[in-house]
Write a structure and sequence with these properties.
Length: 119
């Protein structure tokens, strides 16, 4: 079931770069943002029973691929919107991303900030 418009969403933000997490948090300030600095942190949150509405995950994490995290999200929180962010969208294997990430977002595009502002 989708939340009603205007509802504060539970957003899991996964990125190993503090600056990126801070910028995203500012853009998502009207929602309840939980940060994870690694794939392991994100997976531990999900295993503890945390169920986000939206997962915004970087592709290149220090300890795993963001696609691995989103595959786990798909199993553990199947109703969550799964967004993969990257500065190099051409590096994401399309066949592997299909069915795992609902959208791939270029972190360097103007669309990135606009999309986050509309979540």
């Amino acid at each position: 079931m989708s939340p009603r418009p205007g509802t504060r969403l539970a957003v899991l933000l996964v990125d190993d770069q503090q600056a990126t997490r801070s910028a995203c948090r500012r853009l998502l300030r009207r929602h309840d943002v939980t940060e994870a600095a690694s794939a392991a942190d994100a997976l531990a949150l999900l295993a503890s029973g945390y169920v986000p509405h939206v997962v915004l995950c970087d592709f290149h994490l220090g300890d795993a691929s963001g696609l691995d995290v989103l595959a786990a999200v798909k199993r553990l929180a199947p109703d969550a919107l799964r967004l993969l962010m990257t500065a190099a969208p051409e590096a994401v294997p399309a066949e592997r991303a299909a069915g795992t990430a609902e959208e791939i977002i270029d972190k360097l595009s103007d669309r990135f900030a606009l999309l986050l502002a509309t979540i």
